[in-house]
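# step 3/5: fold
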Amino acid sequence: TLGSAFAMEFVMGHPPHTTHNHRQLEHVLTPWINTSKTLRIRETNLYKRFRCSLDSRTPPWLEMFAETVIHPCLYHGDFAPWNIKCAPNDSWRAIDWERGELEGLPGWDWLHFMLQPAILVQKWNTNRVLSFAQKIIQTPEFLRYLATTFPEGSIAEMPMYLLCSYLFYNWQVLQPTEGQETQEALARWAIQ
């Protein structure tokens, strides 16, 4: 069978550093929020794939999560430092959009950017990744970003629900080929 391919222009630049990038992540990802549209999380393709992958495993937070109204955001799907090029003026340009969605879930790209290097490059154990992830979702920048995506106000439990759904989706739906042991342990933790 014949495959298909397309060519893109070469993108100059270097990948961003992964430490202390919360301000830059907020600066890059906030404009990706479509504040002119609202929908329930259950209406997104990402949620539908996530829900199908759960089988009979239903975490206690799932119903509330699914019914939450959001402003959807542009979703890269593999927003990791190695898929971003920094220009000399420190602006970022994302490449490799094959997993992209126009109506994605907030926070997933942010979490991917911070957690995948910890798992794949630094090879942190599960407990260290979880501790780091829980710190990420409590940063002022992440919370400000999330506040923009939730038109109905209260986001009290949403950072944790987004973290859990991201961790499970990453393992069960994307099925990464590296860091399997840690990623699987994170997914098991996420749906408890």
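# step 4/5: annotate
The mean pLDDT is 89.
# step 5/5: archive (pending)
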